[in-house]
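During the no-cost extension, the postdoctoral fellow (Dr. R.K.) reprocessed legacy sequence entries with the updated structure-token encoder. One reprocessed record is reproduced below for audit purposes.
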Amino acid sequence: MGTEKGIKSSRRIISITLVICVMMASGAFCTTTVKSAKGVSASSGSGLGAESQNSNMSNANPALSSTTVFRQAQQTPSKLVSVSSTEPVINGGIALSRKPIASFIQSWAVRDWTQTRWEQELSAMKASGFQFVIIQSVVDVGYSTDADWSKYEEDYSQYELTSVDSLYPSQIPLLANGNNGTDSLGNCFEAAVNTGMKVMLGPLDDNRWWLYGWDQPQASAGVTDLVKESYFGKWVAENADLNNQVAREIWQKYGAVYDQVFYGWYYYNELWNMPMACTGEDNGVLTEILADSFNSELECYSDITPGKPFLFSPFCNFSLTTTSQYEKMWKDLFTLVNFRDGDIFCPQDSIGGNPDQITNLDEWTAHYKAAADSKPGLQFWSNNENFTSDGGTALLNRYFSQVKITSKYAAQNIVFSWNHYINPLLANANEGYNDTYLDFVKNGKLDDIAPAAPKLTKSGKIITVYKPSDNIGVAGFNIYTSNGSLYRTVYLDANAGSARVKVSAKGTYYVRSFDFAYNLSAQSSVAVS
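Re-encoded structure tokens follow.
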């Protein structure tokens, strides 16, 4: 989790090669490589994920998934467009009473925000049915894990501190120079008062978290107590201590005034189905270390904010373990953690990077719920991902299908991230996403009115497709060959009235436009000779 303005995939990625995928503001997108502690490549099955993902706060055209993905450059009508689609789709018209109640926003995007800017954001969230915002991390500390892994591996103490960023002016020595002069956190709290919204906070992000969990914890020579004396065990203790210092300082500075708009605390370190913990090969070491981390923070929060919930949101790598193994890992961990009534287990559905796994989402969610039910008083929610595998915005039919599946088990749903992917306040926002979302909030079902068929013209092998009319807006169109096979999927920029597509062969091509809920129009056709 660095400070880049791009999608920081600190999630499942780092440890060893620490290849943090970053979607930079320029629009380039890199692929993800994950290696185990012994350098063996592992599939990053869940793709870029909810909390540890960092959006560039623009509505990227959602070019769809492939094994190696480069983000589609935003298109203008004068450019040729060629984007293949492999992401599964679900028809519009989804009826659903459940509305997500919270969304994540990342700290890099809000460091300069005034109270007025926060009020705009929270007002727009409230209009979309949200009750609170989750600031993923108030403080971000970055270390040289990428450059220095080969030298230091899990010895966290050897890495160089490279960045400190704080949303408020801190007196903690390590963080004293981390604020840019704007009290964005204070501005957020005041805006929450004025808009009737609430705020949940993740105190601390430290990217060294991703050094661990891939294998049995390493330790210096002679160490026998891996829980307390491994590098992971010692880092967890120091990480929890700094996290708690930040939380206490925040509460001392803001708590007396803003208690009524403070919702609770978010656990920034993202867990996943760590194979050794899931199979028991670690002899319980990893779960004991993780429990120490949870319990240290929970003790702090019980002291300073009794009654305020603690939320944690792990992800899954679908290829690493079975659902039953992951359920067992959580049950083993929950027996060791001193949760309070009302604390929240809120797994990421991990569909953003793995849209093809939506067919398995019910099974995974059922196992999460079974784990939650093993711990009396622990609430079960679901965190639904509304982005595509290349970091663009998912069409709302897919997203609300995820909400519908998980709401069978979850008491509430939250999202990563309305703020980064649907928000109409984004630079270059395609407001069709938010307009369709608002239509759902108003009517309780997803738009099911298809656009008109598109008008087509041709010049040689270049087909020009003109945006047709729709009751809300047109997101793009599909081009099919004469045998009915999908040839291209093209997404339109917000202000684009048309797009030009170069086809590779002669023949008849059929085109159907679609809206933001993936309602497909009747087809138009053109013959290319």
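The longest helix spans residues 231-258. Residues 1-50, 53-89 have pLDDT under 50 and may be disordered. The remaining legacy entries will be reprocessed before the final report is submitted.
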